[in-house]
Each structure stands twice: as structure tokens, then as C-alpha cells.
């Protein structure tokens, strides 16, 4: 759906009704095809337009970016998961996340 590919701040209110119609048609086709609702399909059909409306576009938050963020978070969690002190755990987590963001922005 091209409307959902609009970048943050680009989506105008005039596209909301068209987006709702497109999603309704996609939902009907999905049901007609008797396809399973996997997490990505659910995210698209149930949440994507709502988020696009809230942020006036979500096209610049692509799947690769989200997957990369999940990998970084998983790496940090594997490192701090065994820490008993939750305060220390939060501090190390935020420090590691800050380092990751600085390294990413420097490249």
C-alpha cells in the first residue's frame, strides 16, 4: 500500500479514507484467500494505518530498520539478562544503547 510508504510528516488527512478503504479491501481478500494472520499481516491490517495517522506517515521506518533495532536490543539483553541488580541492569542497558546509537550515527 503506497499510502503506508509515505515518510513521517508527509501523510495528509486526505489519505486516511483511501487508506481505510485499501485496508478493508486487503482484509477481505485475505479472508477470501483463507490465509493465516501471521504477525506481519496482523500488524499491517490492525495497526499500520493507525500508526501512519498518528505520525503522518511511517514509510521511513522500514522493516530492516526495525529488525536491526531488535537485534541490538537482543544483544544487549543477552549481556545484561543475568544481572541481579535491576538498577545496575538499567544503567548498563542505557549505556550500551547510547554507545550503539553513537557508533551508528558516526558511521
What distance separates the N and C termini? 32 Å
Secondary-structure element pattern, one letter each: HHHH
Structure summary, number of beta strands: 0
Main beta sheet, described?
Answer: none
Residue ranges: pLDDT <50 for 5 or more in a row?
Answer: none
Q: What fraction strand?
A: under 5%
Mean pLDDT: 79
Overall number of structural domains: 2
Number of helices: 4
Helix share, percent:
55-70%
Any idea what the shape is? elongated
**Rg:** 19 Å
Structural class: mainly alpha
Short description:
With 107 residues, the protein is mainly α. It has helices at residues 16-32, 39-55, 63-80, 86-106.
Report on this model:
By secondary structure, this protein is mainly alpha-helical. It folds into 2 domains: 2-55; 63-106. 68% of the residues lie in helices and 0% in strands. It has 4 helices and no strands. The protein has helices spanning 16-32, 39-55, 63-80, 86-106. The model has no long low-confidence stretch (mean pLDDT 79).
Amino acid at each position: 500500500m503506497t499510502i503506508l510508504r509515505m515518510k513521517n510528516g508527509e501523510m495528509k488527512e486526505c489519505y486516511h479514507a483511501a487508506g481505510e478503504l485499501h485496508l478493508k479491501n486487503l482484509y477481505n481478500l485475505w479472508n477470501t484467500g483463507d490465509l493465516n494472520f501471521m504477525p506481519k499481516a496482523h500488524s499491517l491490517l490492525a495497526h499500520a494505518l493507525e500508526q501512519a495517522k498518528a505520525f503522518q506517515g511511517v514509510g521511513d521506518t522500514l522493516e530492516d530498520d526495525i529488525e536491526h533495532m531488535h537485534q541490538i536490543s537482543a544483544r544487549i539483553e543477552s549481556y545484561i539478562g543475568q544481572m541481579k541488580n535491576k538498577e545496575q541492569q538499567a544503567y548498563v542497558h542505557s549505556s550500551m544503547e547510547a554507545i550503539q546509537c553513537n557508533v551508528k550515527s558516526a558511521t
